[in-house]
Amino acid sequence: MSAEEQTTFRPKNELITIEEALNTIQRYLPPRSVFKVPLLQAVDMVLAEPLVAPEPSPRYTNSAMDGYAVRFADVETAGADEPVQLTVIGESRAGVPFQGTVKPGTAVEISTGAMLPEGADTVVPVEDVRISGDTIVVVKPVRQHQHVRFRGEEFSEGTELLPAGVQVKPTHIALLASLGVVEVPVYRPLRVAILVTGSELVPPEKTPEAHQIRESNGVMLHAAVERSGGIPVYRTIVADDPGATLEALQQAMEHTDVILFSGGVSMGPHDHVKHATVQAGIEPIFWRVKQKPGKPLFFAVKGHQLVFGLPGNPVSAFMTYTYYVHPVLQQAVGLPFAWKTRTVRLVAPLENPLKRAHFVRLRTWEENGEWVGEPLQKQGSHMLTTVAHANGFVKLDVGEGYRPGDTVQVFLFP
Ligand code: AMP
Ligand code: MG
Predict the structure, then answer these.
(1) Statement to judge: residues 298 and 202 lie in one domain
(2) Is 242 helix (H, G, I), strand (E, B) or coil?
(3) Average pLDDT rounded to a whole number, residues 230-240
(4) Domain identity same for 53 and 161
């Protein structure tokens, strides 16, 4: 085999189905890995290890009320008819504990959260006493241990508080903080490079010339990758040139797990992504799927690195991202390989007259407590409004169709 033959992309003629494409991608999922992040970065990430309490809670026995720490034996008989008088010998404040012991006939003034002094086992709220100088008179009946929060009563050291697999919420951040867990083990997000091909493209902030357009796929994919739990580490525009494409690919391969190409995967003479991939030593796995939009989708693999060649048409890029890339990034961070879906009642018919699967964009809204939806009129794969005005899509197989009133499963956009 000549050197040129070895680096030439040879497509299989067969297009594969969306099921085959999805199953194939699932066979190449990179293994999840675990790393530790500072506490506040853990929000929305998934715990890779259970949280086991390194200490009990409460950490020390303390008061639940502002009042007086007393010995129950002293105040057992207290009530309106039989007031009990105690001498106040000091104070236990939150953060400044009382150093002595509560002896018979005495009490210590105490604040909420302050350490219960030795000798005391009960707290009388300030509203249940009459104060005169250094003495208090308890005028209401008292229950033993009332208004005391005991060390370990919420949980003891060694208790499993959160299982692995939990998605961290602000309340979990508080729990972790309260236990001093400031480095949190979570699943590592995949690092994604976004290579936007097209010699007609300028960045959105530049004024395009007559023959140019502002590129929108790169920023769209960047934002979507973040929503899926990945980290867009790298994004660049690449001219439709074989050398430039290969160079950008080789650079992107250095520190990333997933490379997303936008454009350059069709049949045209200026579509260089497939060849560049082979030249970079990455194995092409499939090219072209029986679907609309998104037919030119290309998938290649090297070790645990995945390359997706998404079609350049903005709608095709977004639909193929949503269906094939989103679940990959999401499962890496410990969430299911899945999409958010919603059952929706149709207010208009849905048909697939094509010989391949059709991903039809839908607008959905809530009406009288039920989700309803209708397909957008303009479904052109170059029309950004058909994704911007939609919030999901329905996957219609060949020959599949629905009437108004039928319910369908809508895949919601990330
Ligand atoms: P391609 O897949 O490279 O043949 O591109 C298909 C169509 O999508 C062409 O009309 C391109 O101009 C357009 N296109 C490609 N990339 C982008 C992009 N990043 N932003 C907006 N449109 C694009
Ligand atoms: Mg192009």
Answers:
(1) yes
(2) helix
(3) 98
(4) yes
pLDDT of residue 5: 52
Could you give phi then psi for residue 245, rounded to 5 degrees? -65, -45
390 lies in which domain range? 341-412
Pocket test for ligand 1, best of 262, 271, 297, 316 (most atoms within 8 A of CB): 262
Cα separation of 174 and 393, whole Å? 38
Q: Which of 199, 201, 288 to mutate to test the pocket of ligand 1 (most atoms within 8 A of CB)?
A: 201
What pTM value is reported for the model?
0.91
- C-alpha 381 to ligand 2 mean position (Å): 14
Expressed in angstroms and rounded, the spacing between residue 375 Cα and the centre of ligand 1 is 24
Instruction: Provide the token pair at 283.
Output: 């194995």
Measured in angstroms, how far is the CA atom of residue 2 from the centroid of ligand 1? 33
Residues 217 and 312 in one domain: yes
Q: Which residues contact 144 (CB under 8 A, 6 or more apart)?
A: 72, 76, 121, 122
**Shortest-distance atom of ligand 1 to CA 311:** 2
- 11: tokens are 């497509």
> Cα separations (Å) of 23 from 8, 20, 30, 328, 397?
26, 5, 14, 12, 17
> Residue 379 — very low, low, confident or very high, per pLDDT cuts 50/70/90?
confident
Checking if the pLDDT of 1 tops 80, the result is: no
What's the confidence (pLDDT) of residue 6? Answer: 59
Which strands form 84-92's sheet, in the order they lie side by side?
122-125, 67-70, 106-110, 84-92, 135-138, 129-132
Q: What is the mean pLDDT of residues 174-198?
A: 98
Instruction: Among 298, 332, 366, give the residue marking a domain's end.
Output: 332
Average pLDDT, the chain: 96
**Cα 264 to ligand 2 centroid, rounded to whole Å:** 5
Q: Which amino acid makes up residue 51?
A: L
DSSP 60: S
Residue range 269-295, pLDDT digits in tens: 999 999 999 999 999 999 999 999 999
